[in-house]
Amino acid sequence: MSESVVTRTDSGIAPVAPIARDHVIPLAVLAELTHRCPLQCPYCSNPLDLERAGQELTTGEWRKTLSELAQIGVLQIHFSGGEPTVRKDLAEIVKHANDAGLYTNLITSAVLLTKDKLKDLADAGLSHIQISFQGSETIVADRVAGLAKSHDKKIQVARWSRELDLPLTVNAVMHRQNLHQLSDVIQMAVDLDADRLEIANVQYYGWALKNRAALMPTLEQIEDCTRIVEDAQVRLKGTLAIDYVVPDYYAIRPKKCMGGWGRQFFNISPSGKVLPCHAAETITGLAFDSVRDHSIAWIWENSEALNRYRGTGWMPEPCRSCDHREEDYGGCRCQAFALTGDAGNTDPACALSPLHEGIFKTAEQEAAEGASQFIYRNFSGGTREEDIINRA
Ligand code: SF4
Ligand code: FES
Q: 352: CA distance to ligand 1 center in Å?
């Protein structure tokens, strides 16, 4: 099932390894430079065991990794975290990526940026900035972020970005406690002169699962949300591109998560592990290879963990004999693990899964009666919102 082909050799670099037909060199790769972060979002997608600063790849290791990515034909690099701007060498890393010919995108909470730091990044060749927002105004947004004055700072950095001519994407993660602000979030993105708005409903694995009852939207909220987004997509055509991710629990068919496990995307953890998605380490029993031990080309082709759920051969019923198996690749492995304890099961977001009805009922019940307070994410293992309120 493999042949000696390599996609995209525009860089003029020779093919590096046999590539199986059912996976290709990714167009874009996500580099998680650190898990350190000043925010404490209750839906944080980083693994439950955060990697410490001392485990992070050095500047030199990132340089080598970025060069390898360019050599195998990757075109874009997204710098993320945690909060990537905590790395003091970020401008140096961006410059190296830019010099290697990669399109560079910074995915940031923005709260640590100054105008000078942003200018340094733009001078280093940063191609694009993506700023995450937790709502449309201070009270809701600062509460969700777990950091006072964060919203105002984000607005400021978004304005500086446009002054520096950096293309801007606004990223908004939505849930029961901020969906009422959706129309205002869309208007905020227009007012900030953003090129793109990504509206993503929370996905429930990792830390978000601990806060599911506080975050799960009602079905009515999701129906309203979909209508608002569809109206805005028509009204703002040519002004603002809007991407929209619906929550799995109310879906009938699962999302084609990451385009299929290990098919067309990977990310690199702060310590250099090559993962098929940001949440893959929530699945126990998988060992991921590191850029410290192997070349990227070797890992992409040979990693046991990447090969485990590639293609369709691993699938159980009902996926195995389903006509949709090459459309959604059985949904999300991380969600299957979170909800069934086995990443090799059909994603319960699929109506054909025997567990689907149960998760739909759970969603409805939690949305109606769930907790309203968060468990914040941080390096101390989490903080209950009620404890903060009681201490104040
Ligand atoms: Fe997709 Fe499997 Fe559901 Fe078929 S049964 S729609 S392949 S998740
Ligand atoms: Fe890991 Fe979907 S988030 S496979």
A: 7
Residue 299 and residue 246: Cα distance in Å, rounded?
Answer: 32
Indicate the SS3 state at residue 159: helix
Which residue, chain included where needed, has tokens 């105002």? 152
List own/partner pairs for 115-119 with CB under 8 A and 24 or more apart.
115/160, 117/85, 117/91, 118/157, 118/160, 118/161, 118/164, 118/166, 119/164
Across the chain, which has 392 residues, the per-10-residue mean pLDDT values are 34 41 90 94 84 95 98 98 96 98 98 98 98 96 93 98 98 96 98 97 88 93 94 98 88 93 97 95 94 97 96 95 96 94 96 93 89 86 82 67
Q: How remote is the CA of residue 349 from the centroid of ligand 1, in Å?
A: 9
Within a 10 A sphere around the Cβ of 297, how many other Cβ atoms? 19
Ligand 2 in reach of 349 Cβ (< 6 A): no
> Which ligand neighbours the alpha carbon of 45 most closely?
2
**Which among 369, 308, 302 has a CA at the least distance from the CA of 20?**
302
- Total-model pTM: 0.91
Strand partners, 221: none
Identity of the residue numbered 107: I
Instruction: Report H helices in 35-181.
Output: 59-72, 90-99, 115-123, 138-145, 150-163
The residues pairing with 171 across neighbouring beta strands, listed in sequence order, are: 132, 198
- Ligand 1 pocket residues where CB is under 6 Å: 253-254, 318-319, 322, 324-325, 328, 330-331, 346-347, 350, 352
Whole-number Å distance between alpha carbons of 94 and 121: 7
At 381, the amino acid letter reads G
- Interatomic CA distance for residues 169 and 130, integer angstroms: 5
How many angstroms is it from 192 CA to the middle of ligand 2? 31
d(CA 359, CA 249): 6
The whole-angstrom separation of Cα 125 and Cα 91 is 9
Quote the distance between the C-alpha of residue 236 and its chain's center: 25
Task: Compute the distance from residue 22 Cα to the ligand 1 centre, in Å.
Answer: 18
Query: Closest Cα to atom 5, ligand 1: which residue?
Result: 319
Type of residue at 59: T
| Tokens, residue 247 | 């929550």
Q: Which ligand is nearest to the CA of 280?
A: 2
